[in-house]
User: What shape does this take?
Amino acid sequence: MILSTPARWLLRAAAIGVLTFVYVPLLLVLVNSFSSSATFTWPPPSLTLQWWQVAATNEGLRAAVVTSVEVALLATLIAVVIGTLASMALTRYTFFGQEAVSLLVLLPIALPGIVTGIALNTLFTQALGGLTFFTLVAGHATFCIVIVVNNASARLRRMSGTVEEASTDLGATPWTTWWLVTFPALRGALVAGALLAFALSFDEIIVTTFTAGPGLQTLPLWIFQNLFRPNQSPVVNVAAAVLVVISVLPVYLANRLSGDSAGAATK
Amino acid sequence: MPSVARSVPVTPPQQAGETPAISLRGVRKEFPGGIVAVHDLDLDIAEGEFVTLLGPSGSGKTTVLRLIAGFEQPTAGTVLLRSRDVTAAPPFDRDVHTVFQDYALFPHLSVLRNVEYPLRIAKVPRAERRERALAALATVRLEALGDRSPAALSGGQRQRVALARALVNRPAVLLLDEPLGALDLKLREQMQIELKEIQRTSGITFVFVTHDQDEALTLADRTIVFSEGRVEQAGSAQEVYERPASAFVAGFVGTSNVLAGADARAVLGRDGSWSIRPEKITVTAADHTAPAGWTTAVGVVEELVYTGATTRCVVALEAGGVLSALLLNGGGNDLPTLARGQDVRLSWRPEHEIHLM
Assistant: This one.
């Protein structure tokens, strides 16, 4: 598309404006985590590693990070297994109610987190005997599955079904075909889906609030509760910086992976 | 003589009595929605035979192939491979390999690993696997490209890899689903010759699906013409071409040149539908007399289509009907004098008038 010079400059300015608006606050958090001042002051009087040391020895913070990682890993694992099976069923077979199941699988990502949270909370507390670590994992798995199904289904649809037919034709059982043909083609999409699911679970707060067992704190919950306590803000900055890194890294990797393998598949 | 009544078993003329490589008995395939793709088909294919299934798209030929491969289960009837009932057997439990229309090479494996795949499944030891895969690649003249990825090959090369992969473990039957469809004409003709050669030397039964009549006639020992899920005719290239059993076959195989009804009565003095192949017809000036005993008719040249080696001359007959004559552009013809609107005489031997059922 050819644009006039003023239009080009206007669009450039808008793009810079939006990116600045999104990323400068993140940068501030990162810089503030090294600030020697205990309150939000700008510019930081001097730089120090003091808050990182305090954060490292903070039991609550450490426990929250560990819980978050455990929950995200488990929810991702469940999502990869169930999501792969679901996307195979949805793309490789036809069955009664396929359209409905396809919609139902994707719905949790569209549902407001608060609705999912309240619904799961009611189910767990009223029918299943209360909230635990595993109810939290189950809650996160509901939306993690969607990510995996979306990634895997897109790849499976692009992949010609005759490749699997060729494998069975050449003597391979469906199981062998899965290991030697389907899975290798799907691997990149599954890893990308898993990384995104992990990132999503790691910073989730609404469903977490409603499904976490008593005394359990994930990193986002910990930050939320400590943000407005006196003298905690520098440590919160450190936690936020950690959260940014742990969330952004998988998304970056997922992007690289799905880009690469998509290129290879369409070549 | 060659006409095959529907539902009468289609048996290969030679080797009758031996166990056929493939036997379809009363095979019927219905798809959801009441579409009948194959009507009660009886078909025997002999060991070592090269058979082509010829028909327009939707005629059921590919469904027959998929029924033999095991990708589809018949609604009724039985499928026998070397007299073993495989009607309910899955594709991996049939000694039949397929060359797919889109080649279906494994994109994540190298060319050599693609060809090794069936041997790997059959648990052939690694060293032997490599040796046999290289030998199979050599028969399709691709031994130098073993390390390439399928994505780095041309269409013709992919086609050869698919062929090598399907042949390497020596199946009882090789199925080919319009494998040359995506290749350009030159490459196609070259591959046809190679396929024929590979089939002859390997002795493997080939079942080749195509909608291209030239390809079907060039390749096959026997051509089976399908229309709307039924066998219209089965026979050698000559039988199918020279003695079409029905108007459909006459029209689908070769150029349709049919005189029917009032036109047939006026030109031939007989009732019914009659086909005369264009190359059997001689074109002369209108005042020439036809050789004694030949059928003859005069008409006006409607169209002249020059196609290099031949010219097609479309003539509207005075008595009614239109016939095409195919003239070789050799030195012997007085073609330069032919022009649109000219009066000409067409003549042919009466034995070239084929009665269509």
About this structure: The first helix of chain A runs from residue 5 to 32.
